[in-house]
Amino acid sequence: MRAERSKQFSDIRSEIEKISAEIAGRSHGQDNSPRAGDAHDLTIRRLNDYRARLSTLQKEKSERLHKVLEHVTEVHSLCDVLGEDFIAIVNEVHPGLHEADPGKPTSISDTTLTRLSQVVAMLTSEKAKRAAMLREAVVPLVELWDLMDSPVEERRGFQKAAAVLRPAKEEVLSSGVLSMASIKRTEEEVERLTRLKAGRMKELVLKRRLELENICRSMHVEPDASTVPEKSIALIDSGLVNPSELMASIDDQIAKAKEEHQSRKDIMEKINKWLLACEEEKWLDDHNVDENRFSTGRTARLNLKRAEKARVIIMKIPAIVDNLMSRTLAWESERKKPFLYDGARLVAVLEEHKQARLRQEEERRRLREQKKLRTLFSEKE
Question: Name one GO cellular component term (predicted).
Fold first, then answer.
């Protein structure tokens, strides 16, 4: 029993000394001299004291291992984003931190933990500094992309770098995106696009102006005369205006035109309906004077059907015009400006149309009365 108890004490003491050496950062066996009386005190109480001490050291070792692994994992992640040599950095802290030898324990000493914390702080600071450098390069890069309508293929190579502009995704940046090579490549791309911008600015101004003219044409209004192509090109050539400012001015005009186009959409639909009805009315007038309209051909039958539909549409014209006028007046009241259509105020055009229809109706009534009188005169004779 004494021999067995001595062996238990020896094993526990050896494990305690081993863990203590790992925590202290020294080699096992450097300080393993037994305390006085340890060889004679083999009681259960003494054994339980040793076991309690061993349990405490094992728990501390586990916690230290967990901290070391956390720090090493964070160092690896930071090195991956920064494009730095992970092995070289952890070797400076302790060579055993990256070795996969199961027989060799990982360093868990206070010195190792302190150095790892310092490395993490240094790499985190470097990450923040490089992220700021990359952000300074990416912001003008994105502006140049938008300004020059760069194709998706050209942007794709820098999409990972552009992720630095999204703060929520800063912690999951791609591998090597904050390396000095990546930052330098982004800065070189900005320089290249800046040189290219000067040559393509005229083309871009004309393209944006054409877009503005198309929007205004669809609304039947005149575009802003301050950025007509001839004037814009002359300003760029003379150097009196910054091309970027000119582009921004045209983009602002496009935004306003799109907003107005949306507000005019309902009225424009009513205008198209009114114009279609007017076209049908004109066609019906021409059809009514056609002497062959009652012939037996297929075209004549189709024209008769169209004439029936046209009469129904024409009867709705007064209601369409009144509805259109009320909507237009409401739009003008809300926007505090006249609703223009092909350079004329729409309300005035509609008023003129109503007066013209009244004159036309009066003329038709007069012609019908004359025709009736001629018929009566002919019958009387």
Answer: spindle
